[in-house]
Design a protein that fits this description.
Helix content of chain A is 0%, strand content 50%. Chain A is mostly beta strands. Classes of the chains: A mainly beta, B mainly beta.
C-alpha cells in the first residue's frame, strides 16, 4: 500500500531533550516536506527536500533540523525542544515538486513540557 | 506577501443540505489551487486541483470553481453526508519555486444528522 508513515504518533517530552520524528514514504517520491499545524494558523511548512541531500527552509524552520540521506526517509530533528514547539506535525511527499499532489502522513502530536 | 483566506471559519449544516466554502488568494504568479479534506486527527487528502485555465472541476459530490481574474475559488458540496464533517483546506501554488505553497487556515464543516 502506497503510504507515508510517521513515528511516533504521540510524544510527550521535556524542554531540551533532543528528539527525532521519523518519516518514510514507499512511493519513490522525490519531494518531501514537514509541516506543523496549530489551531487557527493552518499548516505551516518547516523544511522541504527536493531530492536526496537537497533540503531547504520553509516558513518556520527555527528550532528544527532535517536530513535526506535516502530518498524514502526524511527525519525531523528537534535538538533542544521548547514548549512553543508543541504542535501537530505532518510529513508529506509528492512526485517531484510541492505543486504536485502531496500525500500526508498520519501526523505526530508532540507535547513539550 | 502571498496569502490565502478561507471563509467561513466554521460551518454547521444538516445532512442532505448543500454548502459552499470560499477561498480568496493573493498568490502570484499563480500555478494551481488544490482543495484538501482533513478528517480530525488525520493528514489532509487532496480533493481537486485547478489550474489557471480551468473554471470548474468535480469529484463526486464535490465541485470546485476557480475565477483567476478575481482570485477566488469555491468548493461546493452537494447532498452532504455525515462523513463530510472535516476541515477543508485551500492550498495555492506559485510558479517558479517548490517552496511557494500557501495554505489557508481551513473551514471546519460539521454535518449534523
Amino acid at each position: 500500500e502506497a503510504q507515508v508513515t510517521q513515528n511516533p504518533r504521540y510524544l510527550i517530552t521535556v524542554t531540551g531533550k533532543k528528539l527525532t520524528v521519523t518519516c518514510s514514504q514507499n512511493m519513490n517520491h522525490e519531494y518531501m516536506s514537514w509541516y506543523r499545524q496549530d489551531p487557527g494558523l493552518g499548516l505551516r511548512q518547516i523544511y522541504y527536500s527536493m531530492n536526496v541531500e537537497v533540503t531547504d527552509k520553509g516558513d518556520v524552520p527555527e528550532g528544527y533540523k532535517v536530513s535526506r540521506k535516502e530518498k524514502r526517509n526524511f527525519p525531523l530533528i528537534l535538538e533542544s525542544p521548547s514548549p512553543n514547539q508543541t504542535s501537530l506535525y505532518f510529513c508529506a511527499s509528492s512526485l517531484t515538486t510541492g505543486w504536485d499532489e502531496q500525500y500526508f502522513g498520519p501526523g505526530t502530536r508532540l507535547t513539550v513540557t | 506577501k502571498n496569502q490565502v483566506e478561507q471563509s467561513p471559519q466554521s460551518l454547521i449544516i444538516l445532512e442532505g443540505k448543500n454548502c459552499t466554502l470560499q477561498c480568496n488568494y493573493t498568490v502570484s504568479p499563480f500555478s494551481n489551487l488544490r482543495w484538501y479534506k482533513q478528517d480530525t486527527g488525520r493528514g489532509p487528502v487532496s480533493l481537486t486541483i485547478m489550474t489557471f485555465s480551468e473554471n470548474t472541476k468535480s469529484n463526486g459530490r464535490y465541485t470546485a470553481t476557480l475565477d483567476a481574474d478575481t482570485k477566488q475559488s469555491s468548493l461546493h458540496i452537494t447532498a452532504s453526508q455525515l462523513s463530510d464533517s472535516a476541515s477543508y483546506i485551500c492550498v495555492v501554488s506559485a510558479r517558479g519555486s517548490a517552496r511557494q505553497l500557501t495554505f489557508g487556515s481551513g473551514t471546519q464543516l460539521t454535518v449534523l444528522p
